[in-house]
Amino acid sequence: MATSSEEGQVIGCHKVEEWKVQLQKGVETKKLVVVDFTASWCGPCRFIAPILADIAKKMPHVMFLKVDVDELKKVAEEWNVEAMPTFVFIKEGKEVDRVVGANKDGLLQTIEKHGAAPAVVTA
């Protein structure tokens, strides 16, 4: 179960092991996982980072991860990331969508499309 300190924030993955642990958490909790593939030298990435952090605060039912493509080249290659920023949307370990570029509206729309808060099912 996610600790409260991890809810509502973007979790940076700096090692492949950390990435695997967080991805597995997303599978177990059945949460939508939004991965920001970024790079320190990328201007649009720096522009979108505080916006993503703000979105994360408002959507604790969605898991947000950040991967630096220079730090975790293998992970970026695995997910076929060719431009920064690329946001990959993952559900139960599988990619369901992606947004390429610092597109705040596209990002919000795609999160809402796939990451609606869990509906309460009444019998």
Describe how the helices and strands are arranged.
Elements: E1 10-13, H1 16-29, E2 32-38, H2 43-58, E3 62-68, H3 73-78, E4 86-91, E5 94-100, H4 104-114
Parallel strand pairs: 1-3, 2-3
Antiparallel strand pairs: 2-4, 4-5
Describe this structure in words.
The model is unreliable at 1-5 (pLDDT under 50). The chain has helices at 16-29, 43-58, 73-78, 104-114, and strands at 10-13, 32-38, 62-68, 86-91, 94-100. The chain is 38% helix and 25% strand. A 5-stranded mixed sheet has the order 1-3-2-4-5, with helices on both faces. With 123 residues, the protein is α/β, with parallel strands linked by helices.
- Domains counted in the coordinates: how many? 1
Mean pLDDT: 90
The residue ranges in which pLDDT falls below 50 over 5 or more consecutive positions are 1-5
CATH level-four homologous superfamily name: Glutaredoxin
Per CATH, the architecture is 3-Layer(aba) Sandwich
CA-based shape: globular
The portion of residues assigned to helices is 25-40%
What does the largest sheet look like? 5 strands, mixed
CATH uppermost class: Alpha Beta
Strand runs, count? 5
| Relative strand content | 25-35%
The fold-level CATH name is: Glutaredoxin
Pfam family, one: Thioredoxin
Function: Participates in various redox reactions through the reversible oxidation of the active center dithiol to a disulfide. The H form is known to activate a number of cytosolic enzymes.
Protein name: Thioredoxin domain-containing protein
Keywords: Cytoplasm, Disulfide bond, Electron transport, Redox-active center, Transport
